Amino acid sequence: MRQTEIRRIPVSYPPFAVSEISRMPLRPLANLRILLGVCGGIAAYKAAELTRRLRDAGADVKVVLTANAARFVTPLTFQALSGHPVRAGLWDEAAEAAMGHIELARWAQRILIAPASANTIARLAHGVADDLLTTLCLASDAPLAIAPAMNLRMWAHPATQANVQTLRGRGVVILGPGDGPMAEPESGPGRLLEPHQIVAELVALHGPKLLSSLRVLVSAGPTCEDIDPVRFIGNRSSGRMGFAIAQAAVAQGAEVHLVAGPVHLATPAGVERIDVRSAREMRAAVMQQIPQCDIFISAAAVGDYRPAEIAAHKLKKSGKALILELSENPDIVAEVAALKKRPFVAGFAAETESVESHARAKLERKKLDLIAANRVGGGAGFDAADNELTLLWPGGKEHLHRADKLTLAHGLLERIVALRAKPAKVRRR
Q1: Domain 215-427, what fold?
Q2: DSSP per position, 60-129
Q3: What is the structure's pLDDT at 426?
Q4: What is the distance, to the nearest Å, from the Cα of residue 320 to the centroid of all Cα atoms in its chain?
Q5: Tell me, what's the pLDDT at 224?
Q6: Dihedral sign, CA of 78, 80, 82, 87?
Q7: Tell me, what's the pLDDT at 370?
Q8: What contacts 277, CB < 8 A, 6 or more positions away?
Q9: What angle do CA 261, 247, 207 make, to 5 degrees?
Q10: Per the CB 3.0–4.6 Å rule, which of 232, 251, 304, 406 could disulfide with 244?
Q11: Is residue 60 within 8 Å of 33, Cβ to Cβ?
């Protein structure tokens, strides 16, 4: 079954500098002057972290709060995080003595409104300039990006959608919204993108694309091998790492196909997804895509064994031990690596002990170009939001320190790009 995401919301995260032993974050938004507008709504609290992340990425940030935003968050918070005084109105006599709103408008190289309320979106669409933020938007030549945040019904309302389309037609970049739980509590589209996703959007807009014109195939998640119509053999893989890799690859300009085992994750925007269940189904889907691929990243936790026979009906308790005969599943990544005409092949090694030595042996045995090793168990690796990886390749290694999986995905992709620049014989010698 194929599931293709139609709406494109490119998401990435600031790339990292390549180093043989460790990696230090680059500042992909270095010296970019960003005017951050914060509108009223519960999502305004996320703008504080967004300010910090923008500065970490190298941006110089000045913050403007709407009157309603100041009911949720305080200027002092943003002053401490941005290093600049915060503006909250047109009637600041000290600032406006020198036409401060015009100076701010000229200062900005990019205007970002996050969160952007339905009210502010409507006023921008109709050219209303009745507060500092909307006045700045009209008075500035800087490109505008907005990250909407509102109730799902407000987002879906025809008036809001018409206003968004009007802004898009003027070249305004719409970041999101995301789809998920809200404060109401309800769940659906209208949720503010997470701060790291918003930063990543800006990096994608301003930075070079590492994987432009390349086709990337990613496998993700577990495989399930049926015992009977009710039970199966599986593992604890959530698929988050593979989905993060697919998301990062799209943001870096790649055409991405994702072969996914049974997971409960939304398809990353811009990714073509192929859903499978068993190892043999995953193999068939991967091998169909491989001839057209430049890079294959096998992040799936493919089961090593399957029941030799699947019972037609639910197995009943008999009071005796149940003995299952297991057959070995295909080794998908090794099969791809053994092809005469093959893409760059990266695998994963999830280990509970002797992580690096086991991963190095797997790299050599399967003749991979790179392997990403991580320790699993005890709350690490599987079904966790963050992780740490040791990247190994013939003659080299690199440790990616603990971070969210999207950050690690970008580190992995950057290393792959660096290794692909070397001749195949050199990187697999």
Answers
A1: Rossmann fold (3.40.50)
A2: EEEEEE-TTHHHHS-HHHHHHHHSSPPB--TT-HHHHTTTHHHHHHHH-SEEEEEEE-HHHHHHHHTT--
A3: 56
A4: 48
A5: 95
A6: positive
A7: 97
A8: 223, 224, 261, 262
A9: 165
A10: 406
A11: yes
**Helix or strand (DSSP H, E) at 165:** helix 158-169
- Give the length of the chain: 429
Q: Are 208 and 12 a contacting pair, CB within 8 Å? A: no
pLDDT digits (tens, 9 = 90+) for 78-127: 999 999 999 887 766 555 444 456 888 899 999 999 999 999 999 999 99
375 vs 151: CA distance, rounded Å? 40
Tokens 């993700």 belong to 220
Helix (H) or strand (E) holding 233: strand 232-233
Q: What pLDDT is attached to residue 158?
A: 92
pTM of the model: 0.63
Among 68, 119, 151, 235, the active-site one is 235
Closest by CA to 243, choosing from 224, 214, 213, 222, is 222
For the chain, the structural domain boundaries read: 29-206, 215-427
Domain 215-427 in the same topology as domain 29-206: yes
- Mark whether 374 is an active-site residue: no
Tokens of 404: 């969210």
Rg of the chain taking only CA atoms, in angstroms: 25
pLDDT of residue 205: 80
- Tracing tokens 């300009």 back to the chain, one arrives at 253
**Residue 54 dihedral angles phi and psi, to the nearest 5°:** -65, -40
Under CATH, what is the fold of the domain 29-206?
Rossmann fold (3.40.50)
Q: Which residues of the chain have pLDDT under 70?
A: 1-26, 91-101, 207, 377-385, 424-429
**pLDDT tens figures, 194-230:** 998 899 888 878 867 889 899 999 999 999 999 999 9
- 230, two tokens: 């009710």
DSSP 3-state of 389:
strand
Tokens of 150: 């509102």
CA distance 229 to 351: 31
Spatial contact of 284 and 314, defined as CB atoms under 8 Å apart: no
All residues at 6 or more sequence positions from 221 whose CB lies less than 8 Å from its CB, including other chains? 237, 238, 239, 242, 260, 261, 262, 263, 265, 300, 301
Locate tokens 């018409």: which residue?
Answer: 162
